[in-house]
Amino acid sequence: MNSLDLSRQQLQGSQFLSERRVGNVIDGASRLPLSGRWLPVTDPATEVVVAEAPDSNAADVEVAVASAQRAFESAAWRGLRPADREKLLFKLSELIERHADELSALETLQSGKLQGIARMIDVGSGAEFVRYMAGWATKLEGQTLDNSIPIPGPQWVTYTRREPVGVVGAIVPWNFPLAIALWKVAPALAAGCTVVLKPSEDTPLTALRLAHLAIEAGIPEGVLNVVCGRGATAGAALIAHPGVRKLSFTGSTAVGKVVGHAAVDNMARFTLELGGKSPAIVMEDADPSHVAQGIAMGIFFHQGQVCTASSRLFVHRSLYRRVLDELAGIAQGMKIGSGFDAASQFGPLTSKVHFDRVTNYIESAKAEGATLVTGGGRALEAGCFVQPTIFADTTPHMRVVREEVFGPVLAAAPFDDIEEAIAAANDSPYGLAASLWTNNLSHANRIVPRLQAGMVWVNAHNVLDAGLPLGGMKQSGTGRDLGRAAVESFTEVKSVCMAV
Ligand code: NAD
User: Fold this and answer.
1) Count of CB atoms within 10 A of residue 368's CB?
2) Is 273 in the active site?
3) Distance from the CA of 252 to the center of ligand 1, in angstroms?
4) Residue list, ligand 1 pocket, CB within 6 Å
5) pLDDT-based confidence at 423, cuts 50/70/90?
6) What pTM value is reported for the model?
7) Which residues of the chain does CATH 3.40.605.10 include?
8) Residue 41's beta-bridge partner residues?
9) Please, which residues bridge with residue 498 across strands?
10) How far is the CA of 149 from the centre of ligand 1 (A)?
11) May I ask the CATH architecture of the domain 279-466?
12) Which secondary structure element, helix H or strand E, spans residue 225, and what is its range?
């Protein structure tokens, strides 16, 4: 059975894809695009078009923002008791779990990802994250403070309150379409904001389904709107809209800068979660087998299409060969196939365009003289499958070391001295994540503060928690998703000064 048959089996009973064309969700209802244009949604395992979603234009975005503005101003959402917002978000998380089969099938169909990952991350962690953020609805607070106002007469009472920032424009990428959408939507709604979400043009289906589930949960119409389309049209209209008071963006650094400039033009608040080129440093006391398992997970999980992927590996020379041999063994043993096949451990890249991009990086590494340890080519005859690939003896100026590949391509190099390894790890425009592999606590505690990264793991890589803020230093962005920092970023602090 091919992936399309398997997905149909799993989508049985779902009305969602009964029509080939799936409209935007605006003001609580499905809307055909005013643009009159549609974009194909393609299954990357078969390269067959499975649906069409709106190719929205500025007029579609205008209608969606107007809907979110009305919902914000009517106080239908922000005026609810926080406990009622919390309850509705809980309901949404229950519906996500109840529709786990359908949502994970849609996720695999549009992105190629393994069913196990779709269930565990996009659906499972996504639903848990909604519950985590639901709890914040009742816990946002201001401060009262003793003041030193020198004006005699009245008694001065001073305090701060947190208020929802307003309409949020959320723009997300294709690698974890539902999970990252929820990273924006859940804290924004917990804080009392309303949202216009624009998913990636490659992966719009789960965002649209989410908006229908939000309506089913009882979240008022207009609170969560989803407008599909290309970045240069729908995305550009959303970031330029003066009615949007906060932009929350996850994607590439190049587009993130465009979003940041647009936000400043309107003085909208912004959070930018951008690209990465995350290093892993393996010290001489580490256990090579444990390291190989962890780094394989860091670079081959979801075919390396992970912003925090451990794409640069620096290993103490005493362990270098051993770690590379074990990593190569793991890479060669991975079962490559459709995301719908329960036996698959490694699926296709998400699109033909991305397949070509990753292949181009592999060729550049070969041309620049890196040693190919394993992989380095197409994995299956049909579909967007590339082999898990390891390059050894890479040098700092190679493209595969400097630029984000966003695929299953590891660049490894040995080191002799830890100072050399720290300098190499920090020698990157990016600063999203890093990992350190050592059993020496003293080394760990001394090195963690010196790594230029928003997230540092010790003896692990790619492990996230709803409460642990995620975000980058340097060109990896500004602001944080997840945790308290995320929900607070959807609020304004208002100071109140009262003469009584
Ligand atoms: P991308 O930047 O090409 O697109 C991201 C989103 O921005 C898409 O929805 C796209 O349509 C939209 N967009 C594109 N041009 C736009 C414009 N001019 N105006 C407004 N919106 C526009 O990124 P991608 O290829 O979808 O995703 C991969 C990138 O995302 C990688 O760089 C990866 O590191 C990054 N990422 C970062 C994190 C994180 O948490 N830091 C998480 C996941 C992915």
Assistant:
1) 15
2) yes
3) 4
4) 171-175, 180, 198, 200-201, 230-232, 235-236, 239, 250-252, 255, 258-259, 273-276, 307, 404, 406, 432, 470, 472, 477
5) very high
6) 0.97
7) 3-274+477-496
8) 51
9) 157
10) 47
11) 3-Layer(aba) Sandwich (3.40)
12) strand 224-226
